[in-house]
Design brief:
19 strands, single chain, alpha+beta, about 550 residues, five-stranded antiparallel β-sheet, about 45% helix
């Protein structure tokens, strides 16, 4: 006999153990147990389904004492035992609720029902929020039950797989049908299918499966099985489009390869300037190992006594502001020697436009600086030179002139820059043969020298002794020309006067009749005034 648990408690409290051996009492207790079970079942029913009047009539009916029988000598006889009657009254008092108690229980049931209703509403609201959250995730989501039927899908899932229908229209369909419809989007359709079959069979969480699509996109897939009380209830698929991330990764790999093999120093730091990485070129330039560089401040490393603090300060300001910068400073090595460095930096921004990293290129420009210094000194000398100095490019066009040029010709640098000197300095009386010889020398890249008549801006003329030669780089390639022009106008005029007087004297001596001769020791030539008279027998 199976007795209600509540009644079992009452029996243990009020009846002796041997009383359960009597058949009539056992039958009675079975009836009471049924009443208890019926009562507890009614407690679980909603209040509006409860009929208080009928329940009161059933529950308040006293137990009939005639049901209690006693067995003696194997014969059955209805005997009202006072002890048993007292037991019946006790059970009625303890087990049967009064009307007031019943009302209290009914009120309690209403409270429980209301709490249950509120819990159901809260559960529904929570489910709606979770559904809304999943639907609006930045990943494609597909949720299936234990039978493979689709419970939920969001729009991004449909977009990823080219599904044109609304996500809600997929609910109730078999997820495998969707897999079959979309498998040809992938570069390995059969591999895609077999992997899904394996995941469903193993029912283990797997993250990071990369899927290559034929259109060039790359998706990463997560599989999450769902268990409730160790019972499999379905699974969730999550798909994230990482195409752009992959493209950036490949671009970064290419840049890293270039940076690693670059002779210049290349370094990456975080947004606060802490070194994250540097290439071999940087370690060779500075003498520091990579381990010594990582974690150091990128701005402070390389600063020494001769480093210009103002340039460093300006660079730091731009760095902290997330701006690009370029500067030339003296950069110190680990061994305290130094070199001239051209440093160019660029911010690397994240998807929110914030500075994530900085990269900089460090170029050793010591030789360039030394050449520039030499050129500065030579330019200073040339600038103050009394002779005209003209600098030209490989085409013979003017790039620079000194002060003497402006003083002698009347032209400023801005007026003649980019022009060929002959285009404005030669005129009708300039010797054409000298012009052609000058052009040939420039074309062949040979040194040149000549005396030439030039024209000033105001149209006046002057004589120059022109000397020039090509400029070559370390590969012996012509990079330009320079010419040095000396004003020899007075010298030419003096020579012309001397020649004029010489001509007059010669004519005078020839008319005198006497034989006059002269010897020029510079040219080693002897001149006879009267070549027709041979006084010496020659």
């Amino acid at each position: 006999m199976k007795i209600n648990k509540l009644l079992q408690t009452q029996i243990k409290r009020h009846l002796p153990a041997h009383a359960l051996n009597e058949a009539q009492l056992a039958e009675f207790l079975d009836a009471v147990s049924s009443t208890y079970n019926l009562y507890q079942g009614e407690l679980k029913r909603p209040p509006d389904a409860y009929d208080i009047e009928k329940e009161q009539a059933a529950l308040l009916s006293p137990v009939d004492p005639s049901l209690i029988t006693s067995q003696k000598s194997g014969k059955q006889k209805n005997i009202v035992d006072p002890a048993h009657l007292a037991l019946i009254n006790t059970i009625n008092e303890k087990a049967i609720a009064t009307v007031d108690e019943k009302h209290e229980q009914q009120d309690e049931r209403k409270i429980v029902a209301e709490a249950l209703k509120n819990s159901e509403a809260l559960l529904a609201a929570t489910a709606n929020r979770l559904t809304h959250l999943i639907t609006n995730l930045n990943n494609g989501i597909l949720l299936e039950d234990e039978n493979g039927k689709i419970i939920l899908a969001n729009k991004l899932f449909c977009d990823n797989f080219g599904i044109t229908c609304a996500p809600d229209s997929l609910i109730g369909k078999a997820g495998r049908e969707t897999v079959l419809d979309t498998k040809d989007l992938f570069t390995g359709p059969e591999r895609y299918m077999s992997r899904i079959t394996a995941l469903l069979a193993e029912k283990k969480t797997v993250s990071g499966d990369e899927l290559q699509l034929k259109d060039g996109r790359v998706l990463v897939r997560d599989f999450i099985p769902l268990f409730v009380d160790n019972t499999y209830k379905g699974h969730l698929w999550k798909y994230e489009d990482i195409t752009r991330e992959k493209e950036n990764q490949r671009a970064l790999q290419r840049l890293s390869l270039v940076a690693s093999n670059n002779e210049n120093g290349v370094g990456f730091s975080d947004s606060m300037g802490t070194f994250l990485w540097a290439n071999e070129g940087f370690t060779k330039l500075t003498g520091y190992s990579l381990d010594e560089i990582i974690g150091q401040n990128a701005i402070n490393i390389g600063i020494g006594p001769l480093t210009d603090r103002e340039s460093i300060s300006k660079m730091a300001d731009k760095f902290l502001a997330g701006k690009s910068f370029a500067t030339e400073v003296i950069h110190y090595r680990k061994d305290k020697s130094w070199f001239w460095a051209r440093i160019k930096g660029q911010a690397v921004l994240d998807e929110h436009g914030e500075v994530a990293e900085y990269f900089a290129i460090v170029e050793n420009i010591t030789q360039e600086k030394e050449q520039a210094e030499k050129f500065r000194i030579l330019s200073l000398i040339a600038e103050e030179n009394q002779n005209v100095v003209i600098m030209m490019d490989v085409t013979g066009s003017i790039t620079w002139v000194n002060k003497s040029f402006t003083k002698n010709t009347g032209y400023t640098l801005d007026e003649v820059r980019g022009k060929n000197p002959g285009s404005f300095m030669h005129g009708p009386e300039t010797n054409k043969e000298n012009i052609e010889n000058l052009k040939k020398a420039l074309k062949k890249g040979e040194p040149f020298t000549c005396e030439m008549l030039n024209y000033r801006k105001d149209g006046s003329t002057y004589w120059v002794r022109l000397q020039g030669q090509p400029l070559r780089n370390e590969r012996n390639e012509i990079t330009g020309f320079f010419s040095l022009e000396q004003d020899i106008t007075k010298e030419i005029e003096s020579q012309q006067i001397v020649k004029k007087y010489e001509s007059r004297f010669r004519k005078a001596f020839e008319k005198i009749g006497d034989n006059v001769w002269e010897h020029d020791f510079t040219t080693n030539l002897t001149y006879f005034s009267n070549t027709k008279s041979h006084l010496l027998g020659y």
